Task: inverse folding
């Protein structure tokens, strides 16, 4: 069945929705009174519906999970569908922001703790000031006080012992000498060489504080003897020093030197005479030499009086 020629174009399904309201009203009035045009319109509507159904059947619905409402916690956000990937990125960014906030909080806490610790330490220092360590002077040893008169020429070094082996040990022990306990050897060698052991002990005191300091601590030399025959010579860059295997050997070498060279050969028998050669005077103002003489004589006087220290 063919529609009316005047209305055929307007009846086409692809043009129906392009008609104006007036044209649509005129078409509806004509179709109501024209069976042929009404039949064509019905056919066109069926055909259009089939085409639409065919198109819609080929479109897969988007899962609801693929669209979510916008994050309403963010300022300025609106409720609209957002792809999952964007939501995941936003969550990751939010996690990073939270991590940054946590790190900042920890840093602030550590900074506050550090400041409090500094304040605490400062308050302790102020309330409990630390005194500087005491300076212990070990060399040179101060001159001992003279308990009695000292001869102008100094004490005679030749003679029997005026001090006991026990007293020698007590003195060595008092001064923490590495030769402590060797008092009997020092005493016996004095008797052998006829040199008062108190003189040897005084030289030992002045030269190295009884072997505690300087070369003697290594060489076992009572009087810091320079290199001599039959003994190793060490520290040659400093002029060389005789090295002895033990303290007894060092004691014996000193006694032999004083007896053979000073007393027997050169007839020097007093402290002052011996030191003038043992430690020669450099000039008239040689204070070190005068101190040496005074030191030895005062030690002898002190120990002969029975005292261990001044």
Result:
């Amino acid at each position: 069945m063919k529609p009316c020629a005047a209305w055929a174009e307007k009846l086409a399904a692809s043009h129906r929705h392009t008609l104006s309201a007036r044209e649509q009203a005129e078409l509806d009035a004509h179709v109501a009174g024209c069976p042929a045009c009404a039949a064509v319109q019905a056919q066109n509507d069926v055909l259009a519906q089939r085409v639409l159904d065919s198109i819609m059947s080929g479109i897969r619905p988007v899962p609801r999970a693929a669209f979510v409402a916008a994050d309403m916690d963010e300022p300025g956000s609106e409720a609209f569908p957002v792809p999952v990937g964007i939501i995941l990125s936003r969550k990751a960014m939010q996690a990073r922001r939270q991590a940054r906030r946590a790190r900042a909080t920890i840093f602030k806490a550590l900074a506050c703790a550090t400041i409090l610790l500094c304040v605490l330490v400062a308050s302790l220092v102020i309330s409990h000031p630390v005194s500087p360590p005491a300076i212990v002077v070990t060399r040179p040893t101060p001159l001992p006080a003279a308990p009695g008169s000292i001869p102008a020429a100094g004490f005679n070094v030749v003679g029997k012992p005026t001090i006991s082996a026990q007293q020698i040990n007590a003195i060595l022990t008092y001064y923490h000498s590495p030769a402590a306990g060797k008092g009997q050897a020092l005493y016996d060698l004095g008797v052998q060489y006829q040199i008062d052991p108190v003189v040897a002990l005084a030289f030992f005191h002045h030269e190295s504080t009884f072997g505690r300091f300087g070369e003697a601590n290594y060489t076992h030399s009572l009087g810091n003897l320079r290199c001599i025959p039959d003994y190793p010579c060490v520290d040659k860059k400093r002029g060389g020093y005789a090295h002895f295997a033990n303290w007894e050997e060092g004691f014996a070498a000193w006694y032999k030197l004083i007896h053979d060279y000073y007393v027997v050969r050169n007839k020097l028998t007093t402290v002052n005479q011996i030191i003038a050669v043992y430690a020669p005077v450099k000039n008239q103002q040689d204070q070190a030499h005068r101190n040496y003489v005074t030191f030895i004589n005062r030690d002898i006087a002190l120990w002969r009086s029975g005292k261990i220290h001044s």
Notes: Confidence is low (pLDDT under 50) at residues 61-88, 130-147. The chain has eleven helices and two strands. The beta strands are 233-234, 241-242. The longest helix spans residues 84-127.
